[in-house]
Design brief:
alpha+beta, Alpha-Beta Plaits, Calcium-transporting ATPase, cytoplasmic transduction domain A, Rossmann fold
Amino acid sequence: MFQIIQQRGWTDYYRLQKISRTDMPDLREHKRVTYDFLESETYRKQHLHEQADGTFTCHWFIDGMTCAACVWLIEKGLKQRIGVHEARAFLDRGELSLSVDARFDHRSAAEELDALGYQVKLSPHQGDNGTQSTELLRLGISGALAANMMLMTMPLYTGGLESDAFGVLFGGITAVLSIPVILYAARPFFVKAWAGLRNRRLSLDLPISIGLVSAECLSIHQLLTRQLHHLYFDSMAMLVFFLLIGRFIQQRGVNQALRHTRQLVATMPQIVQRWDGVSWSSVTAQQIEPGDLIRIESGNLVPVDGQLRSDDAVLSLHVVSGESEPIHQREGSPVPAGAINLGCSLEICASSRFSDSDSERLRDLANRLKSQVIPASEQTLASVFTTTVLITALAAFLTHLDHIEFAFRSALTILIVACPCALALARPTALATAFRQASNLGIWVRSTDAWRRAPMISRVIFDKTGVLTEGCPGLIRSHWLTPREHWLKGAIIALERDLNHPIAQAFRTAFAVSAEPTSVTEIRVTPGQGVQGRVDGHHVVLTAPHACTDQAIHAAFSEFPTSPTATQVLVLIDGQPAALFEFEDRPRPEAPSALADLSHMEVSVLSGDRPGPVQSVCHQLGIERFQAAMNPTDKLQAVTELVHTGHQVAVIGDGLNDMGALGTATIGVTHAQATEAAIQMADVVLARPDLRLIPLFLELSRRAQRATKQGITLSLFYNVITVFLAWQGLIGPLWAAILMPLSSLSVIAIANYTVKGDFRWAS
């Protein structure tokens, strides 16, 4: 990156970097990817949009863009490329918008950004901020007009202008200013109220709409009859403003969570090599047909189900079944979609299309489960409240029929003062505060309904591999039979340097700092057995115990106590035993404290791993209920049975095998390093795999629920009092104008105090 910046003369990047900082999280570890897909016809059809002037627009997600200097560098580099008409990077959304012509080399541009440390990703769901911009415009218009209308009506409240020409002038100005509020700013309430009536459902938008229209009509009538002390234009505008600001803040929290998760699931579609009878050609996973022979490079994911055609292979099934250790397959063995190739490149004969693979069928099932919406209890409250208000207004009208004008004014006044502004604000303001607090903690909640369901959770189910544990083996014990420990560490690093196997990664993590650099020759990797090579003239072998047939070597290592659940690696130097290493997928360091915070709930583990490792981890963490060797269907059935028997279940998982369970659970939780499928299914995504965030989210949801109930109670109390005063004709326009926004402000204050409170985890 430094060389590119110096060669291009872009040294202003470093000046900008010093003065620009943001808290944008680097969601995933950056690793180099291939951008072959950007040269495919599929990319051109799905992601390039031709404009009337012959140019093309496209949108990329950019990982690693964290400050204004990054924006400057990305735009600077792209604008100097041939074929670029416009390049705009959006820091808040992590997106790049391009306007290019046919000369632009998409792949080359993406590779240059990758070399600078910015990974390019694509998503079928492009960001669209049109709706949010419209809502912000409505909010701004209603706020500005409400403030001016209150200034115009203040002389009317203080008295002395009721019969004056200036009173009529001020009243007329407020009437004119109210027109954009009622016709434009308040339009969403009318649309939703009408939609509810068409669906035979009473919502809070109906009494809000009736109250707003009633206030407007009554105020116009009073203005025409010169009764200027009964104008409600300003109160109506303030109601609209408070309602819009509550809903806008709530929706902004949802959009922020969705934006984070949209960046996480954005990918660069995988290109694989397919044999066409003459040569290998590049195709996307969606183009693979049953019977096709495909080649999967080392470290890549298998996109479809198939059968192995290579002699052997080393595969990781972590995201498919939850197995923590790699498996070794022989020619003719089945290979599931989602497996990761840890060895050399291998050949597979596809047995299904991409859309027909087991993982895709499970994804479809999970999507269907997730689409089942539980009706919110607020709808019942809205129906009862709306019915009560309408009946009360009708009763007031019938009670004063002998004075028709007074009856009409009493009924309309009840509809106005009972307009459920505070009631409608109770939940949005509580959730808006909760969304903001959760985002600060690194918790992204993808739907408002998740906040309603979370306080009901009574049982928490964890996956093991990658959730309770670190997801990869770590060195737990070393047994040395040679005094040349330092030299041997360097030899091991040299042998394992370019291997994708989890054990190789564990060796590099454990010995990278302390090992001295050395060179190695004659490296030979044997899948399922180990690796060997010549280092400084010595023959060094790293092997699994089962691959070593020399009983004398086993006898030399037998004096060391070993764990029955650990993976063991023997090291030989010139045929002599030198060291024994033990590896295990260890529990996360924060797991005990997180489980202690969940001690009031039933905690269990459902894992696809072998019984031994599952039992070992659960024993270390004090978890009594666990099941091992469960396939994705087993997990789905177990969670479904619990939900159908009345349990409120939270499932925490990160793999393809967790999709069904995440979809059918009351709440599904995953983290930012999980598979794309798990992120799409989850209700809650954690910015980092920190288990302590789970009890924090549950506590935050309970606080939001408590704030909602307190706001609703205050609102109902306010409505009972004001309706009674309006019925008796004791309430005046000044008090109505003061009490209505005051009740809304009280609800907002309660939400902020209750949700934030004395956050013990704020640090």
